[in-house]
Amino acid sequence: MTAKPDLYTTKFAQFVRTNAEKDPTPPTDLIELLIESFLLTDASRDQTEHAMSRIRHDMVDFNDLRVSLVKEMVETIGVRYPEAYDRCVLLRRALHDIFRRQHKVSLEHLMTIPKRDAKSYIENLDGIPSFVAARVCLLGLNIHAVPMDRTTIRLLVESDILTSAGSAADISQLMLRHVRAEDAVSTHVAIRKAVDRYLVSGRPSRIGKTSRKTGASTPKRSSRK
Questions:
Q1: What is the pTM of this model?
Q2: How many C-beta neighbours within 10 Å does residue 103 have?
Q3: CATH fold of 30-141, please?
Q4: Binning pLDDT at 50, 70 and 90, where does residue 78 land?
């Protein structure tokens, strides 16, 4: 039976400290945050910022993006953007689902309802990846979440911080048991800094000797329940 992924907590804490950055300014528009999060999935912050600037330049508003053809969306963010077509298909589905429910492209109502309901709404949008839902919850709704995408998981495995890979949703749940709510934003920012470097270099940064060896004991776990 294959062992479930686990976390080397001491090394992960060191990883976060090494990549620490100032927390971002809280977002003012949840739709903009949603779109940004779609673009950031398995991509760098520079790529995301460039694509967002092109969207703002080419589109009248975010409803204009919703009614665009997938081909037009791809042309806007750039045909060389990582997984551009599939990314735009999912984004368009999510925007259409929001419009179907709200009769406008807006998520502002989520600020006025219980957090549990807001979280459920985001997580159940059509086409929404785990990373996007978690990031909107964390940065836009102040809900405890640790966004994970495939690139982050690969980086953490290659850095000997995760014992093995898993789905983004499963690894995100694992991280929730080890990252306190008050540390979740700073942890996310540190992870994205490391991912940016990883996407450029193709290899993880060294953060000290790994404790993983053949036949080694199981990872040190958090004592919190």
A1: 0.89
A2: 8
A3: Endonuclease III; domain 1 (1.10.340)
A4: very high
